[in-house]
């Protein structure tokens, strides 16, 4: 089962997304901020990271850079709200593979994840 | 009309909990932001995050109005964050108005019904604040639509300008076994974040080979100079099938074309790609792919339920919601048990006294002790279950104080401590209004306008403190300001003027007693009635409300130093400790919270002042109330030589209650007298004693008032 690390500070968003992913055969781990994500990434070695941008403690952009330092091959998809275009662009330059725009459409999330982890 | 939200009940619960947290963050942080002189970046970020998360979550569940409002808030907050706007109280006002609207929108979810709240006004305010700020190409407004001038598309050819170096690379490509291809991509129309999508696509294709040139270039894309086309010249080992494979996995690409690049050409021109308005084939393909996906999703859904269930079980919360009524009835039942516990001991005592204890009665004794212990624990646990931190109540005060002080033109530093202190929820419900009233008074009458304060040599900003703390079996709530204080002379004058006391009485009043006059109904010392307070109703209501729940208020004030209100509250309403006394062989209960001491004294120690019986205790004159006279209407005062006096104290007033004898101290369960009997002067309720008899509970505040008049 492919492992997805879900990073979002809003428990509601994690809950909803985790439900969708587990129902579709992914194993889901959750992190509630960037720092938590970096730590969990090392422990879990997920196949894909879904990374929120605006978070306390460590934001998504910093977390992408940190994770890339640990694993240059890391597959990270940014979860962005409209209007965070510049940040997403920076994240892509820092090594994130793709992005999804909130509010999520279930098909979009699934098809994006599928592209990277099958 | 239902809201038709796209979320399960559990999801909504999490959403609502989080929303409340964010509301709280916004409320607290906005007040801090306004107060702090230096711009606090971390605080600003936290505020921004709260509204940003709210926006995302509300859009996800499909609460469009909430998403719309939070979006507007975020726009303004972003300006603040980037220092393109400064924090003004007008702006904070608007934000608070937003917060109020958000709460209404939250309630829509609770009621599953759309409210009649109109967002137009507040959105307009947000919009004009936002537009007034410099650099208002908002990051959150939709980006300028991609250049759809058909020029590029109708042009039959596109040209690729190559530099000399690039031409060199191109010329040498075949030697390195690389073939050049021109890839032309057309993105979906009206794509959100087109620039990023273009960039991601560029990056993905870059991995298939060596990119020589792209139009727009990476730099241009970063600067958001994008159209809905992307042209790339790429050198690669593999043939175009590889490119097709990669492109097929990329999203949002409407059409594409791959052409081998003529390697003899140094200044290349290739036919340009045309957007086909309705591509039947492509769409059919698309539909197929999508429905295929959907089938898979359904399949997975059918496969997954066990996994999902396990997951849910793991995450199951360790708390449950319980109806308050259930807690009340549990408390009632425990109350009955507490009565029986007392009875059981009494029976046991009789048994031991009158019969020889055999094996069986000893067994009964042990079991009784055990039941008693369990009952005590049960009582404690249920009381705990009814406890809530006062935080829930206190939370709304900072905002209120801010609004009030702004309205009154005061500068107030409001500090709260001890929010974690826990109280029975029914008490929390009862003290809300009195606390609001006292805080209002403090802002409106207590704290002086800044200029007056400066003139008095006080700091410009007034201090207002709200504190909750635990003290033995009570909770103490204090409200303290450093304002102008209460002038006893003014209160006396006002009391005389309103005919509440005679001038004679006024002269005899101590300062403390005079200040306590403010608790009498109809007394207001404020010359002008304000919007906020001073209508002369209030302080008596405050005191009555608090005494109703067996609490007590104390006031301490000094002119120009400030005023302090101290509210003493019981931990629970249902069970109290009481001193049992007997009068004419029937037992009465006096709430222990108001008992200061008991005194045994001789009849001849009684003195008379204005025909009123008094005693002198440690130099202080204490009026006496003979309970026998009050409750039994018996005037014959037997001269038994000695008598017992229970000294009770409420709000600084002391009275000695004369009783026949003291019975003991005991936990009692308060029962109301019921509708048939109704209100009885001097009696606040009844309780059942260990021997099954009913004891009346003495209403101390009523008796003190009587003694005073």
Task: Outline the fold blueprint.
The complex is a heterodimer of chains A (118) and B (709).
Chain A: E1 3-7, H1 11-23, E2 27-31, H2 34-44, E3 48-52, H3 60-70, E4 76-80, H4 85-93, E5 98-101, H5 106-117
Parallel strand pairs in A: 1-2, 1-3, 3-4, 4-5
Chain B: H1 9-35, H2 41-61, H3 64-81, H4 89-111, H5 120-132, H6 151-154, E1 157-160, H7 164-173, E2 179-187, H8 194-206, E3 210-215, H9 218-222, E4 229-236, H10 240-249, E5 253-260, E6 268-271, H11 280-303, H12 305-315, H13 324-354, H14 359-385, E7 387-389, H15 391-394, H16 397-408, E8 412-417, E9 422-424, H17 425-446, H18 450-455, E10 462-471, E11 474-481, H19 488-497, H20 503-508, H21 511-516, H22 539-548, E12 552-558, E13 562-570, E14 575-583, E15 586-591, E16 595-602, E17 607-609, E18 612-617, E19 620-626, H23 627-632, E20 642-650, E21 653-659, E22 661-669, H24 674-677, E23 683-688, E24 694-698, H25 700-708
Parallel strand pairs in B: 8-10, 15-24, 19-21
Antiparallel strand pairs in B: 1-6, 2-4, 2-5, 3-4, 7-9, 10-11, 11-13, 12-13, 14-15, 14-22, 16-20, 17-18, 18-19, 20-21, 23-24
Helix pairs in contact in B: 1-2, 1-4, 2-3, 3-4, 3-5, 4-5, 13-14, 16-17, 17-22
Walk me through what this model shows.
The complex is a heterodimer of chains A (118) and B (709). Chain A has 5 helices and 5 strands; from the N terminus they run E-H-E-H-E-H-E-H-E-H. With 118 residues, chain A is an alpha/beta fold. Chain A has a single domain, classed as Response regulator (Rossmann fold, 3-Layer(aba) Sandwich). A 5-stranded parallel beta sheet of chain A has the order 2-1-3-4-5, sandwiched between helices. Chain B folds into 5 domains: 124 residues, Four Helix Bundle (Hemerythrin (Met), subunit A), CATH 1.20.120; 127 residues, Alpha-Beta Plaits (2-Layer Sandwich); 62 residues, Helix Hairpins (Orthogonal Bundle); 182 residues, Heat Shock Protein 90 (2-Layer Sandwich); 134 residues, OB fold (Dihydrolipoamide Acetyltransferase, E2P) (Beta Barrel). About 11% of the residues of chain B have low confidence. In chain B, helix 1 packs antiparallel against helix 2 and helix 4 runs antiparallel to helix 5. Chain B is an alpha+beta fold. In chain B, strand 10 and strand 11 form a beta hairpin. Classes of the chains: A alpha/beta (118), B alpha+beta (709). Chains A and B meet through helix 1, helix 4, strand 5 and helix 5 of A and helix 1, helix 2, helix 8, helix 11 and helix 12 of B.
């Amino acid at each position: 089962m492919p492992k997805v690390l879900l990073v979002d500070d809003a428990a509601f968003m994690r809950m909803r997304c985790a439900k969708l992913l587990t129902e579709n055969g992914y194993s889901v781990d959750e992190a509630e901020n960037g720092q938590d994500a970096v730590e969990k990434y090392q422990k879990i070695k997920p196949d894909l990271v879904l990374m929120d941008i605006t978070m306390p403690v460590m934001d998504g952009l910093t977390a992408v850079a940190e994770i890339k330092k640990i694993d240059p091959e890391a597959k990270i998809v940014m979860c962005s709200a409209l209007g965070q275009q510049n940040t997403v662009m920076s994240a892509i330059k820092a090594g994130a593979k793709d992005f999804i725009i909130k509010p999520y459409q279930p098909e979009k999330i699934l098809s994006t994840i599928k592209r990277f982890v099958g | 009309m239902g809201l038709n939200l796209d979320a399960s009940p559990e999801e909504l619960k999490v959403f609502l909990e989080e929303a409340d947290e964010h509301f709280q963050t916004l409320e607290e942080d906005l007040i801090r932001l306004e107060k702090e002189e230096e711009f606090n970046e971390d605080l600003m970020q936290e505020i921004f995050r709260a509204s940003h998360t709210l926006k995302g979550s509300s859009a996800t569940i499909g609460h469009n109005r909430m998403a719309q409002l939070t979006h507007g808030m975020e726009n303004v907050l972003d300006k603040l964050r980037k220092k393109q706007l400064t924090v003004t109280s007008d702006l904070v006002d608007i934000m608070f108005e937003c917060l109020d609207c958000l709460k209404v929108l939250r309630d829509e979810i609770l009621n599953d019904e759309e409210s009649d709240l109109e967002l137009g006004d507040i959105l307009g305010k947000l919009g004009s604040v936002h537009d007034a700020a410099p650099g208002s190409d908002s990051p959150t407004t939709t980006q300028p639509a991609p250049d759809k001038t058909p020029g590029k598309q109708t042009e039959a050819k596109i040209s690729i300008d190559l530099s000399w170096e690039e031409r060199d690379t191109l010329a040498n490509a075949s030697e390195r076994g690389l073939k050049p291809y021109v890839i032309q991509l057309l993105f979906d129309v009206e794509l959100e974040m087109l620039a990023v999508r273009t960039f991601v696509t560029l990056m993905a294709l870059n991995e298939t080979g060596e990119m020589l040139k792209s139009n727009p270039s990476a730099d241009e894309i970063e600067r958001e100079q994008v159209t809905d086309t992307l042209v790339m010249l790429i050198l690669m080992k593999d043939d175009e099938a590889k490119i097709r494979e990669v492109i097929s996995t990329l999203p949002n690409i409407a059409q594409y074309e791959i052409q081998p690049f003529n390697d003899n050409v140094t200044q290349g021109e290739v036919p340009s790609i045309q957007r086909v308005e309705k591509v039947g084939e492509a769409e059919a393909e698309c539909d197929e792919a999508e429905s295929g996906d959907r089938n898979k999703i359904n399949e997975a859904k059918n496969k997954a339920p066990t996994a999902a269930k396990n997951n849910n079980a793991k995450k199951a919360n360790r708390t449950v919601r319980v109806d308050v009524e259930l807690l009340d009835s549990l408390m009632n039942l425990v109350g009955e048990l507490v009565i029986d516990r007392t009875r059981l001991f009494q029976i046991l005592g009789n048994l031991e006294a009158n019969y020889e204890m055999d094996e069986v009665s000893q067994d009964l004794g042990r079991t009784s002790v055990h039941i008693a212990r369990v009952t005590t624990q049960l009582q404690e646990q249920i009381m705990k279950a009814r406890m809530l931190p006062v935080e829930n109540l206190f939370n709304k005060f900072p905002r209120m104080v801010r609004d009030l002080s702004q309205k009154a033109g005061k500068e107030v530093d409001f500090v709260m401590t001890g929010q974690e202190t826990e109280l029975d929820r029914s008490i929390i419900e009862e003290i809300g209004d009195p606390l609001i009233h006292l805080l209002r008074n403090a802002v409106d009458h207590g704290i002086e306008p800044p200029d007056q304060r400066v003139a008095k040599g006080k700091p410009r900003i007034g201090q207002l403190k709200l504190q909750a703390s635990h003290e033995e079996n009570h909770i103490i709530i204090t409200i303290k300001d450093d304002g102008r204080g209460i002038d006893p002379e003014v209160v006396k004058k006002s009391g005389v003027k309103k005919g509440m006391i005679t001038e004679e009485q006024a002269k005899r009043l101590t300062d403390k007693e005079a200040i306590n006059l403010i608790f009498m109904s109809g007394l207001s010392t404020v010359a002008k009635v304000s919007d906020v307070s001073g209508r002369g109703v209030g302080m008596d209501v405050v005191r009555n409300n608090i005494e109703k729940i067996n609490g007590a208020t104390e006031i301490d004030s000094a002119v120009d130093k400030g005023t302090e209100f101290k509210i003493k509250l019981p931990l629970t309403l249902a069970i109290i400790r009481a001193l049992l006394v007997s009068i004419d062989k029937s037992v009465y209960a006096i709430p222990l919270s108001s008992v200061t001491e008991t005194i045994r004294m001789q009849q001849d120690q009684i003195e008379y002042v204005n025909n009123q019986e008094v005693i002198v205790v440690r130099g202080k004159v204490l009026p006496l109330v003979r309970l026998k006279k009050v409750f039994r209407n018996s005037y014959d005062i037997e001269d038994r030589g000695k008598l017992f006096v229970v000294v009770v104290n409420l709000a600084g007033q002391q009275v000695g209650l004369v009783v026949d004898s003291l019975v003991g101290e005991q936990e009692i369960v308060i029962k109301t007298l019921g509708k048939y009997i109704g209100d009885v002067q001097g009696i606040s309720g009844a309780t059942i004693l260990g021997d099954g008899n009913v004891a009346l509970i003495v209403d101390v505040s009523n008796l003190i008032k009587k003694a005073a008049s």
